[in-house]
């Protein structure tokens, strides 16, 4: 059984269907890719999984439990964490406090006690943010800002991590370090779901890839299968032509 | 039966007018994304204009209608949009609300300046009150038929405009996606301007129609509150749908009249209930509305606040207490009392700092929570009578708890929804309280006890006495209030620096992200609202006891809004902003206006000029409030920045300190007057950063050896760049940066 699973998710905005009957799985200890051209419905899918968007129909299962009706906060407390494509950093807090506040929130609801300072330092160290920990998040480069979102998510010690285009805006060196970190996280048992337009990166990191096009799931499989799938090629070439023409 | 028919028709007529007002509100909100709290104020201003041209100048009704409703109305709306509202795109919701609140206040102040509120102004019905027909035994006046017909025509017209016409479609789209509209060749600003013009016209029309059917007397405050009735109606359509707004308005109008018809009219209860109906209905609707979609940081707001360390806050707090004490020695008895009153307002202002500055939520009726606390303290905490009467500490504590609990109850229904709804709920609650409690002068019998909530329409609130500490003495009162302010301020600084404060900041910056970290937003908002209400309650009890005898007017909505506005202008994110804003609200404008009033009495020749100056001060503060969109962090922010830069200009600081000491001694020995001292000190404090800057600029010209950089000089960006250059880091940095912008 997969840790995270969606069943026949459909999301509509007024008349148009952004996600159409999509079922996908995300497994523990692996990086799962979710790709598709612009507007394919990837972010909408993430919003539905995390509870920010109500689906018209379908279910979200975490560890076999139906969590479709739960609030985002409850899902987070069950081990779900994400980053945002349009950055949602806490602009009035420093880099360090952006990460730390995740611990503050977690601790506020439960009796769980741990040394927040130490925990924060560990996460900063691991994500390579220690050197900018004291800076305002509003004046760091976008590539690093995306890493802050990842660090903040990691601070909640999640079981599933959903990343929405985390590498866009990163330098090549940053991407390299980031890829290494992701592999390490997956090796520790985290279920990672990665939305990314950098296809070579996705092909390299992911064990399984799901492909969306116009809201529909058009292919799922290993990187090799995806590369050879005629539907995927058609979808990507279609957008190439559209963007060139 | 004919009673029923009569009241039904009256209800429909009242509903018609609500519907006209409400649809204007819905129109501007949907087109510009700004909820216009000044909608009722515009109605009020337009109606005064109408009165002026018909009664003062004797114009015929048709000409007055063309000029006031047809020209002045749209002009007022278009001007508002052009000068103020269009600059608000991309600002935080709080800023948008504050700006329209400032417009509301400015309009009220202006109206009270032009049309003396002590004189009666009455507006008659169209065709006169005698023009009527009788249908099935029920008398219907022509004026009422006009109301009904106008409402139906307007609702239908707006519906067609929104759904059928191109302009209407553009109007609807211009909030959600102005860029998309622009790409398609439409002009969202033009649509917004049109909607402001139309909305303002509808407001004016509603005002001219409603005054005659609600007694004919024109009252600036009452008509300004038409906005509450309007938004209660608009809530039925979730501030979006015109047909449902129309239905909501009718429900409201009918309910108001059935209450009059069928509830016992003895005592003040029924009359009070009638005016409170919109608020009751509003809360019912709030409870049943579905939850809002969680939103991210929709706008990159321009507000920036520095958070003080707890130690720094403590040092400043101690300095404040010392400075207030030293200054109080210079003041006459009456000055000390006024100052103390100002300090109690500053405590209430702290409730806004934590709620709005830290958590990003709004309370438009802070004084109402002060009123709740006052009523509780009066009933449960007063010992002794006459001059020997004192408030005990248990009473104050109970009052604070009551304020917190009532705050929780008021906020709860609105918390699932966007911040705007909480703001609306608090404003409605403030009015409810004004009507139901502060006017409740009748005896109630409940569980075998007899009590009167607000005997004689005013309460005498004695000063607090705790052990040997007796606040009857003015200076003791002032110092106690100051120490309390200082303690709460330090407490809030500690709160903001702790986990709770970080969680508040996170919620304010991005509700979506903080929910995704596991934050229960409703619980967090509820807790902070209760903390805020408790602080407002404490400040309120002290304010009442500093005032001595309080009545409904001491807790009026204009008072609450003026306080909020001044705190925002000073800097809502800063504890010092609460101090400055609170003092301005409690003392500043009151002292200035009364000083001008005294001057006017003393100098009869100049009387008109001085009276005008007094009004000008009020209107001026509102004008500053309208400008808050340009500097949303407040002026305290700029001053603090100025002083931060001066930490290295030690000689200038020492010099200023010496000057201050000399001035103080001069004032203490009566060589210079208190006013002169205050003025010189204020000017010096303002000018100090300027002097310091030029001093620093001169010193900067001698470059520091690089090894010492950052040691006794702040580590600036400029310095960082210099270091990078020396160490050969520039090339690497630029390479890294190039990819970022790609
Ligand atoms: N709140 C919304 N209201 C209306 N339509 C929306 C909303 N959010 C998304 N859509 C539409 O749903 C579709 C899917 O959007 P989504 O953002 O999920 O795509 P995406 O795959 O994340 O694209 P990208 O790669 O550009 O991020 C798009 O057509 C978009 O216009
Ligand atoms: Mg996306």
UniProtKB/TrEMBL annotation, chain A:
<dbReference type="GO" id="GO:1903806">
    <property type="term" value="P:L-isoleucine import across plasma membrane"/>
</dbReference>
<keyword id="KW-0067">ATP-binding</keyword>
<dbReference type="InterPro" id="IPR003439">
    <property type="entry name" value="ABC_transporter-like_ATP-bd"/>
</dbReference>
<feature type="domain" description="ABC transporter">
    <location>
        <begin position="4"/>
        <end position="239"/>
    </location>
</feature>
<keyword id="KW-0813">Transport</keyword>
<dbReference type="GO" id="GO:1903805">
    <property type="term" value="P:L-valine import across plasma membrane"/>
</dbReference>
<dbReference type="GO" id="GO:0005524">
    <property type="term" value="F:ATP binding"/>
</dbReference>
<dbReference type="GO" id="GO:0015192">
    <property type="term" value="F:L-phenylalanine transmembrane transporter activity"/>
</dbReference>
<dbReference type="GO" id="GO:0005304">
    <property type="term" value="F:L-valine transmembrane transporter activity"/>
</dbReference>
<protein>
    <submittedName>
        <fullName>ABC transporter ATP-binding protein</fullName>
    </submittedName>
</protein>
<dbReference type="GO" id="GO:0042941">
    <property type="term" value="P:D-alanine transmembrane transport"/>
</dbReference>
<dbReference type="InterPro" id="IPR051120">
    <property type="entry name" value="ABC_AA/LPS_Transport"/>
</dbReference>
<keyword id="KW-0547">Nucleotide-binding</keyword>
<dbReference type="GO" id="GO:0005886">
    <property type="term" value="C:plasma membrane"/>
</dbReference>
<dbReference type="GO" id="GO:0015188">
    <property type="term" value="F:L-isoleucine transmembrane transporter activity"/>
</dbReference>
<dbReference type="InterPro" id="IPR003593">
    <property type="entry name" value="AAA+_ATPase"/>
</dbReference>
<dbReference type="GO" id="GO:0015808">
    <property type="term" value="P:L-alanine transport"/>
</dbReference>
<dbReference type="InterPro" id="IPR027417">
    <property type="entry name" value="P-loop_NTPase"/>
</dbReference>
<dbReference type="Pfam" id="PF00005">
    <property type="entry name" value="ABC_tran"/>
</dbReference>
<dbReference type="GO" id="GO:0016887">
    <property type="term" value="F:ATP hydrolysis activity"/>
</dbReference>
<dbReference type="Pfam" id="PF12399">
    <property type="entry name" value="BCA_ABC_TP_C"/>
</dbReference>
<dbReference type="InterPro" id="IPR032823">
    <property type="entry name" value="BCA_ABC_TP_C"/>
</dbReference>
TrEMBL record, chain B:
<dbReference type="InterPro" id="IPR043428">
    <property type="entry name" value="LivM-like"/>
</dbReference>
<feature type="transmembrane region" description="Helical">
    <location>
        <begin position="419"/>
        <end position="438"/>
    </location>
</feature>
<feature type="transmembrane region" description="Helical">
    <location>
        <begin position="309"/>
        <end position="330"/>
    </location>
</feature>
<feature type="transmembrane region" description="Helical">
    <location>
        <begin position="477"/>
        <end position="495"/>
    </location>
</feature>
<dbReference type="GO" id="GO:0005886">
    <property type="term" value="C:plasma membrane"/>
</dbReference>
<keyword id="KW-1133">Transmembrane helix</keyword>
<dbReference type="InterPro" id="IPR001851">
    <property type="entry name" value="ABC_transp_permease"/>
</dbReference>
<comment type="similarity">
    <text>Belongs to the binding-protein-dependent transport system permease family. LivHM subfamily.</text>
</comment>
<dbReference type="Pfam" id="PF02653">
    <property type="entry name" value="BPD_transp_2"/>
</dbReference>
<dbReference type="GO" id="GO:0015658">
    <property type="term" value="F:branched-chain amino acid transmembrane transporter activity"/>
</dbReference>
<feature type="transmembrane region" description="Helical">
    <location>
        <begin position="59"/>
        <end position="85"/>
    </location>
</feature>
<feature type="transmembrane region" description="Helical">
    <location>
        <begin position="582"/>
        <end position="601"/>
    </location>
</feature>
<dbReference type="GO" id="GO:0006865">
    <property type="term" value="P:amino acid transport"/>
</dbReference>
<feature type="transmembrane region" description="Helical">
    <location>
        <begin position="649"/>
        <end position="666"/>
    </location>
</feature>
<keyword id="KW-0472">Membrane</keyword>
<keyword id="KW-0029">Amino-acid transport</keyword>
<feature type="transmembrane region" description="Helical">
    <location>
        <begin position="142"/>
        <end position="162"/>
    </location>
</feature>
<feature type="transmembrane region" description="Helical">
    <location>
        <begin position="336"/>
        <end position="355"/>
    </location>
</feature>
<dbReference type="InterPro" id="IPR052157">
    <property type="entry name" value="BCAA_transport_permease"/>
</dbReference>
<feature type="transmembrane region" description="Helical">
    <location>
        <begin position="6"/>
        <end position="27"/>
    </location>
</feature>
<feature type="transmembrane region" description="Helical">
    <location>
        <begin position="271"/>
        <end position="289"/>
    </location>
</feature>
<feature type="transmembrane region" description="Helical">
    <location>
        <begin position="672"/>
        <end position="692"/>
    </location>
</feature>
